[in-house]
UniProtKB/TrEMBL annotation:
This is Branched-chain amino acid transport system ATP-binding protein. It comes from Chelatococcus asaccharovorans. The keyword Coiled coil does not apply. Residues 9-241 form the ABC transporter domain. The keyword Ribosomal protein does not apply.
Length: 247
């Protein structure tokens, strides 16, 4: 990790419109290297689209994305991922009919890694119960393991910034703890920054020193979760509904 934090992600005045639908507008924030930032908000608030735009999958309508002051705006997905911004998906992102091992090998090849890259994930493969399943077809894995494989595939590319889209969705209690562990690995071993879109408020409180709240495409609030989640406008827009659903 760079102590100077030179791989800061900067999002400046970012807007995205699909035809007549303004999905989000004028979103600005910075994610310093090695930090974890949560993004929450109601369904349809624009969170996944924000990840799609930062990752280069979609071009913004306005605004800029910079990594370590390098211009990422408008660059295609493969160029942005090679620069070090890597996303995971709400759904799993494996080549479904390939084996677990083949998927990992492809991701390592994509990032120019070799045997050291395999060694670097030995502990994680054991911990996430993927080690005994390397020969199994990826889409035959239980859902929770497919999600962990998706995270491991992002990890082996050694990203500078990881964008995680609902990593805990569909996971049960013990499996959710693996998301915490994965984020710890990413920070400690890669020095990587992590942006997490999530509806699981406990996970957000555990992992994120700071959060952003998106509501109807606007940045409603930002700051530490204890502070932000207690705000009346945030409770009205989002938190009350989510915590009622969970109760
Ligand atoms: N490619 C697209 N073309 C047109 N509209 C889209 C497209 N992708 C998303 N949208 C719309 O943009 C809005 C924001 O969607 P988005 O998936 O970003 O929300 P979200 O905050 O991630 O929601 P959720 O929490 O349910 O995942 C929605 O109204 C959605 O229908």
């Amino acid at each position: 990790m760079s102590p100077s934090g030179h791989e800061t992600l900067e999002v400046v005045g970012l807007s995205k419109r699909f035809g007549g639908l303004q999905v989000f507008q004028e979103i600005s924030f910075t994610l310093p290297q090695g930090e974890v930032l949560g993004v929450i908000g109601p369904n349809g608030a624009g969170k996944t689209t924000l990840i799609n735009v930062i990752s280069g999958k979609l071009a913004p309508t306005a605004g800029r994305v910079l990594l370590g002051r390098r211009e990422m705006t408008g660059q295609p997905l493969h160029a942005v991922s090679r620069a070090g911004i890597m996303r995971s998906f709400q759904q799993t992102n494996t080549f479904s009919t390939a084996s677990v091992g083949e998927n990992i090998a492809r991701a390592i090849t994509f990032s120019g890694g070799g045997s050291a890259a395999w060694q670097a994930i030995t502990g994680m493969l054991d911990e996430f119960e993927l080690a005994p399943r390397l020969d199994e077809q990826s889409d035959k894995l239980p859902y929770g393991l497919q999600k962990m494989l998706g995270l491991v595939l992002a990890f082996v590319t050694r990203p500078k910034v990881l964008l995680l889209d609902e990593p805990a969705a569909g996971l049960e209690g013990r499996e959710r703890g693996r998301v915490d562990s994965f984020v710890r690995h990413a920070r400690e071993e890669l020095g990587c920054s992590v942006l997490i879109v999530e509806h699981d408020m406990d996970l957000i409180r555990r992992l994120c020193p700071n959060i952003l709240v998106l509501d109807a495409g606007r940045l409603l609030a930002s700051g530490p979760p204890a502070e932000v989640l207690a705000r009346k406008d945030v409770i009205d827009a989002y938190v009350g509904a989510v915590e009622e659903e969970v109760a």
